[in-house]
Design a protein that fits this description.
The complex is a heterodimer of chains A (438) and B (311). Chain A has 438 residues and is α/β, with parallel strands linked by helices. Chain A is 29% helix and 25% strand. Chain A contains twelve helices and 18 strands. In chain A, the strands form three sheets. In chain A, strands 13-10-9-8-14-15-18-16-17 form a nine-stranded mixed beta sheet, with helices on both faces. In chain A, strands 6-5-7-1-2-11-12 form a seven-stranded antiparallel beta sheet. In chain A, strands 3-4 form a two-stranded antiparallel sheet. Chain A is elongated. Chain A starts with 21 loop residues before the first strand and ends in a 9-residue tail after the last strand. Chain B has 311 residues and is of the alpha/beta class. In chain B, 23% of the residues lie in helices and 30% in strands. Chain B is built from nine helices and 14 strands. Chain B has an eight-stranded mixed beta sheet. In chain B, helix 2 runs antiparallel to helix 4. The longest helix of chain B is centred in the middle third of the chain and has 14 residues. The chains are: A alpha/beta (438), B alpha/beta (311). At the A-B interface, helix 5, helix 6, helix 12, strand 16 and strand 18 of A face strand 6, helix 3, helix 4, strand 11 and helix 8 of B. Strand 16 of chain A pairs antiparallel with strand 12 of chain B, so a sheet runs across the interface. Chain A: This is tRNA (Adenine(58)-N(1))-methyltransferase non-catalytic subunit TRM6. Chain A: It comes from Citrus sinensis (Sweet orange). Chain B: It is found in: Nucleus. Chain B: Belongs to the class I-like SAM-binding methyltransferase superfamily. TRM61 family. Chain B: Keywords: Methyltransferase, Nucleus, S-adenosyl-L-methionine, Transferase, tRNA processing.
Chain lengths: 438, 311
């Protein structure tokens, strides 16, 4: 079988970080996710100490770092993980027979003999995190009484505190949109290269960025707003997009895309609003070096809250301009051909109120997907579309996602789960409208 | 099917032509893929539909039979294709498909390896995700099914992005020529742990693997074998719950259960729904939604893992 000469997409295959790129720092196996921009001055707070992120520049995505207790304070150093050859042994021991249980264990907080000062002293003397964990285990009165599962859990807990690991990851963004919900919107919206996708994105640019990623620099994602003020697209900056992809992200107001000729007043208003938006984005990115995402659940698939951590860093953002106003030729193209599909994430608005105006902008037989956290607005929207025969194949879906812990003799669904995937109304635009029925 | 071919891209100006693949839509749960042919006719319970009536109309049109019945003609998409394709094997549906594509981080330009091809349901969506600069190399050990899949990819217009090979991946692993070149790998095999060592060789640094298995024992065994060379191992289950809606006409006393009808008193004017002649009722709270009675309980577990960075 011959191998095609596949053209490599430069960003997807960027293997190594560079100065100024956005990264996602995965602390302790998904416990904490932090977005950061890698500059010589940026730092990461672990526990109550700050570590410089400088050692991460130029390292491959996927590399692992640990916090070392150096003379000048904690620093991040690269570790190469070894294949776990003792995993099989441990697993056999666990499965063969666990006779211990917790009947004799009393939780009175007196089991650990080492004090906080003892540990600090060990640190000062240059003990590694692993050595501290071993010492804690040795000094625990109840450790031997625990089941092997419990011992493993205890050791893991201490390792996370005293020998935290940081995994360098490519950034991926989430907000209140759960990952499965977003993935469904992209599929139902038939997002592919060379498409022209109309989006209403009130998720801070998350939807726009996700669509742009799947367009790969061809076609357009038109970010439109209901009303006068454009929606913020900050999250798009996190994606590390190439210039090509940035150019495919454009803005247009509903009146721009629907009107025959440009109303100069309205478009000027929007233009200045857009320019302000782009300016303030760039200002923000020069002062924000870190954005902390705190997880509200262990498995990390539920809502994440974006907190901007403003620390003064005098670095000019290298992110390309996104969200330029759509050009006249592009608007003309969309009017002639229609959009290939539409995706809506507008949790505060009533969908039918604007979908009835946007649907005619889609090509005939174009699919669309509308997200809402509440069911009722989608039900009424679906009904209105049905009655007017504006769309067929209408369906309201609710995605359900559950993660599993898979370990020998300990396989079960995770304890925490997200209950809010929201709802999606999907369908396909018809070529007939109500008036041509008779 | 894919907009990468400008002559096939849907638009206001694009009309149905001889040779096009259309999706004939009777109801949301009754659709069929048909190739348009000047002299052919499509038969269903509504009557006979001449293809010649279809030619020149835009996609999304409503067309009529000799008996006055109607259907809609839709442009094919990977989602619609999954619902109409012929099942030679059990297939993946949109919930699993969309999640896999996102979690494998597939974008245009990626190289994906897949085994088994099965009926090509996922393969079609993989092709959409990586086109036009990427490619899907898919393998199945069943010669006839591989051939049927190839035919389907021709029919749907994705064959330039998909190469089907006949190979037993569990027994032989993936071909050496792909070593270190795959961005992502998808496995839907009865014993995926046998293919994991080969998958490790094929993946690029930080590449991602996904294994789909219906049984938890398969998942456990796969995870065990993944732990050696992979990190970030996560297993999920994804399902879709669908809802149906219904118009509630309070004044007519229609609807389920007498008790609930009595408790809803409206002072709004009664209005009748007459197709396109409906008067807009500003307060549309008469539409109700409830989950569908039939729900899918399980398809399979999706296990994802990233290749450990060892250099």
């Amino acid at each position: 079988m011959s191998q095609n000469n596949v053209q490599l997409d430069p960003i997807r295959n960027a293997q190594v970080t560079w100065e100024g790129c956005s990264v996602l720092l995965d602390i302790n196996d998904g416990d904490r996710l932090v977005f950061a921009r890698l500059t010589s001055g940026s730092t990461l707070k672990i526990g109550n100490k700050n570590c410089s992120l400088q050692p991460l520049i130029g390292c491959p995505f996927g590399s692992l770092f640990q916090v070392d207790n150096g003379k000048e304070g904690p620093n991040l150093s690269r570790v190469i993980p070894s294949p776990e050859d003792d995993v099989q042994e441990k697993e056999d021991a666990q499965i063969s027979g666990e006779f211990r249980d917790n009947r004799a264990i009393v939780d009175d907080n007196k089991a650990q003999c080492l004090s906080g000062e003892d540990i600090d002293e060990m640190r000062r003397q240059g003990a590694t995190g692993e050595e501290i964990v071993e010492a804690l285990i040795a000094n625990s009165a109840t450790f031997e009484k625990k089941t092997s599962f419990s011992q493993e859990k205890y050791k893991l807990k201490k390792q996370k505190k005293y020998a935290p690991k940081v995994l360098l990851r490519r950034p991926f963004a989430r907000r209140f949109l759960r990952v499965d919900t977003l993935s469904l919107l992209l599929s139902m919206g038939n997002v592919a290269a060379n498409s022209d996708v109309l989006v209403v994105d009130m998720a801070g640019g998350l939807l726009t960025g996700a669509v742009a990623e799947r367009l790969g620099g061809t076609g357009y994602v038109c970010n439109t707003c209901i009303g006068d003020s454009p929606y913020p697209m900050d999250i798009v900056r996190i994606f590390n997009f190439s210039n090509e992809i940035c150019k495919s992200i454009v803005r247009a107001s509903v009146s721009d895309v629907t009107s025959q000729s440009e109303t100069s007043e309205q478009s000027d208003q929007l233009e200045s609003a857009c320019n302000m938006e782009i300016q303030s984005n760039e200002q923000k990115s020069s002062s924000v070096s870190m954005e902390d995402i705190s997880l509200s659940s262990e498995n990390g698939v539920s809502d994440l809250i974006l907190e901007a951590n403003h620390s003064p860093v005098n670095k000019i953002s290298k992110s390309h301009k996104v969200g330029e106003k759509a050009s006249q030729e592009t608007l003309k193209l969309w009017k002639e051909n229609g959009f290939s599909s539409m995706i809506v994430v507008a949790p505060e608005l009533d969908p039918w109120s604007f979908v009835k105006d946007l649907l005619p902008l889609l090509s005939y037989s174009a699919p669309f997907a509308i997200y809402h956290q509440y069911l009722q607005p989608l039900a009424t929207c679906m009904h209105s579309l049905q009655v007017r025969k504006m769309a067929i194949g209408l369906q309201i879906s609710e995605p359900w996602l559950r993660e599993y812990q898979v370990l020998p003799s300990r396989t079960h669904p995770c304890m925490q789960m997200s209950g809010c995937g929201g709802y999606i109304l999907s369908g396909t635009r018809t070529a007939t409208n109500a008036s041509s029925q008779q | 099917m894919l907009p990468t071919d400008p002559t096939k891209k849907i638009s206001f100006t694009r009309c149905i032509k001889e040779g096009d693949l259309v999706i004939v839509y009777e109801r949301h749960d009754c659709m069929k893929a048909v190739k348009v042919c000047q002299n052919s006719a499509f038969q269903n319970r509504f009557g006979a539909f001449k293809h010649s009536d279809w030619i020149g109309k835009p996609f999304g049109s409503m067309v009529f039979s000799n008996k006055g019945g109607f259907v809609y003609l839709l442009a094919p998409t990977p989602e619609l294709w999954t619902l109409v394709l012929s099942h030679r094997t059990q297939i993946l549906y949109i919930a699993d498909i969309s999640f896999v594509i996102m979690y494998l981080e597939l974008v245009p330009g990626c190289l994906v390896l897949e085994s088994g091809t099965g009926s090509g349901s996922l393969t079609t969506s993989l092709a959409r995700a990586v086109a036009p600069t990427g490619h899907v190399y898919t393998f199945d050990f069943h010669e006839q099914r591989a051939a049927s899949a190839r035919e389907d990819f021709e029919r749907t217009g994705v064959s330039s992005f998909v190469t089907v090979g006949v190979r037993d991946i569990q027994g032989q692993g993936f071909p050496d020529e792909f070593s270190g070149l795959a961005d992502s790998i998808f496995l839907d095999l009865p014993q995926p742990w046998l293919a994991i060592p080969s998958a490790k060789k094929m993946l690029k640094q930080d590449g991602i693997l996904c294994s789909f298995s219906p049984c938890i024992e398969q998942v456990q065994r796969s995870c065990e074998s993944l732990r050696l060379n992979f990190t970030d191992i996560r297993t999920f289950e994804i399902l879709l719950r669908t809802y149906e809606i219904r118009q509630w006409r309070a004044d007519c006393g229609q609807g389920t259960g007498g008790g609930s009808a009595g408790s809803i008193r409206h002072k709004r004017k009664q209005h009748l729904i007459e197709g396109s002649g409906e008067k807009e009722n500003p307060n549309n709270s008469t539409v109700m939604a409830r989950p569908n009675g039939e729900a899918r309980g399980h398809t399979g577990y999706l296990t994802f893992a990233r290749l450990k960075c060892l250099s």
